[in-house]
Amino acid sequence: MIFRQLFEKVSSTYTYLIADEVTGEALLIDPVLEETDMYLRLLNELGLTLKVAMDTHTHADHITALGKLREQTGCLSLMGAQAQSACASGQFEDQQIIKIGQLQIKALHTPGHTDDSYSFVLEHQDQTYLFTGDTLLIRGTGRTDFQNGNADDQFNSLFNVLLQLPDNTWVYPGHDYKGWMVSTLHEEKQHNPRLQVSNAMEYRQIMDNLNLANPKMMDVAVPANRACGEVSL
């Protein structure tokens, strides 16, 4: 397997390249529009063919490269079914398998940050990789106060879905603002302050009192991402 963690510094977004080195088929998770040329260059340098580009959810802090990558490479652009994206090539649902060569990535519906939030699980050579988008961050979790977010839903997504995976699962988030690149579920269970709660009510009290400002790009990014990255002027 070929695996790369890529970083877009303006929005502190991680994009993940996953590829089957036997077939050369590749997938990108959460690509950012401004980094499109870099993705294309990397794919070319590694001799890979992009088959799928997909987002964990409808982003509010950056514009997706799904549409641009489909235009440039002919790849499929995929979103979760709950995003109701008319522009995407297709959609995935809970427990659906996305195949890239011999690799199998399982989609898990993990709402809470948004109602269309998904995480992705990949098992390879006895190691589990978990791509959590904004549902689970390193020592944090995604906010739940817009885009049909819901703290109770996120509590369920965290404790009854993601944290049920093996403790040694590697956690790769959609963002990190401190420069941390990877964690494990065991680390997050032990040290993530948002996970030190005993029930959904305690979690909701934390999330309802964050008092965060809206993302600066929200008014532009959300409608653009619902159009697969097409910006209306």
How would you sum up the global shape? globular
Name the CATH architecture: 4-Layer Sandwich
Overall residue-averaged pLDDT value:
94
Q: Evaluate the radius of gyration.
A: 17 Å
What's the assembly state of these chains? single chain
Distance between the termini: 40 Å
Structural class, by secondary structure, is: alpha/beta
Q: State the fourth-level CATH superfamily.
A: Ribonuclease Z/Hydroxyacylglutathione hydrolase-like
Q: Per DSSP, what share of the residues sits in E-state strands of 2 or more residues?
A: 25-35%
The CATH topology corresponds to: Metallo-beta-lactamase, Chain A
- The percent range for helix content is 10-25%
Can you walk through the features of this model?
The chain has 233 residues and is an alpha/beta fold. The protein has a single domain (2-211), classed as Ribonuclease Z/Hydroxyacylglutathione hydrolase-like (Metallo-beta-lactamase, Chain A), CATH 3.60.15. The chain is 22% helix and 29% strand. The chain has helices spanning 36-45, 66-73, 151-160, 185-191, 200-207, 218-226; strands at 2-8, 13-19, 25-29, 49-54, 76-80, 90-92, 97-100, 103-109, 118-124, 127-133, 136-137, 140-141, 170-173, 183-184. It has a six-stranded mixed sheet. A six-stranded mixed sheet has the order 7-8-9-10-13-14. Strand 11 and strand 12 form a beta hairpin. The longest helix has 10 residues, at 36-45. The termini are far apart. 44% of the residues are buried. Residues 12-175 form the Metallo-beta-lactamase domain. This is Zn-dependent hydrolase. Belongs to the metallo-beta-lactamase superfamily. Glyoxalase II family. InterPro entries: Metallo-B-lactamas, Mito_Persulfide_Diox, POD-like_MBL-fold, RibonucZ/Hydroxyglut_hydro. Its cofactor is Fe(2+).
